Amino acid sequence: MKSKEKALALAEATNQKKGFNVRILDLRGTASFTDFFVIATGASDRHVRTLAQATLEAAQRHGERPLGIEGEKTARWLLIDLGDVLVHLFQREARAFYGLERLWGDAAPLELPQAAGGTQ
Predict the structure, then answer these.
(1) pLDDT at 114 (0 to 100)
(2) What is the pLDDT of residue 120?
(3) Exposure string for 73-110, b = 16+ CB within 10 A, e = fewer
(4) pTM of the entire predicted model
(5) pLDDT tens for the chain, residues 1 to 120
(6) What pLDDT score was predicted for residue 118?
(7) Pairwise CA distance, residues 30 & 11, whole Å
(8) Considering only CA atoms, which of 38, 42, 37, 46 is closest in space to residue 12?
(9) SS (H, E, C) the chain
(10) How far apart are CA 21 and CA 118, in angstroms?
(11) Distance, CA of 59 to CA of 42 (rounded, Å)
(12) Domain ranges in the chain?
């Protein structure tokens, strides 16, 4: 599976579990360590864990296994490393504090299908 297809599938998985403000940043021309960030917000630690589980299940359906997972205990910022795609799942306050979209402002956003990317 190509990294762009993977990023879209993982973003859709978070969207199906009601992730908020789902975004994909294309880092292919900006960073050497990954191709895409998938970023989503959950309403609580339980919601962030649910988003993570949906992400992992979607990756597994496509034959992908994570290289690592960080932040499971507190689930304020949970990172799933799939090599060419990094999934960042935040609670609202943590997402605002770390501001990945601001830090990686040179990265182009990838257009999501119409149903993806709910706001709150």
Answers:
(1) 63
(2) 47
(3) eebbbbbbebebbbbbbbbeebbeeeebeeebeebeeb
(4) 0.91
(5) 699 999 999 999 999 999 999 999 999 989 999 999 999 999 999 999 999 999 999 999 999 999 999 998 989 999 999 999 999 999 999 999 999 999 998 898 998 876 545 554
(6) 52
(7) 20
(8) 38
(9) CCHHHHHHHHHHHHHHCCCEEEEEEECCCCCCCCCEEEEEEECCHHHHHHHHHHHHHHHHHCCCCCCEEECCCCCCEEEEECCCEEEEEEEHHHHHHHCHHHHCCCCEECCCCCCCCECC
(10) 5
(11) 19
(12) 3-109
Residue whose entry in the numeric block shows the structure tokens 């403000």: 21
Phi, psi of 13 (to 5 degrees): -65, -40
Place of tokens 């960030």: 37
Centroid of chain to Cα 16: 13
CATH superfamily placement of domain 3-109: Beta Polymerase, domain 2 (3.30.460.10)
Residue in the block written with tokens 């999501």:
112
Residue reference for tokens 């339980």: 46
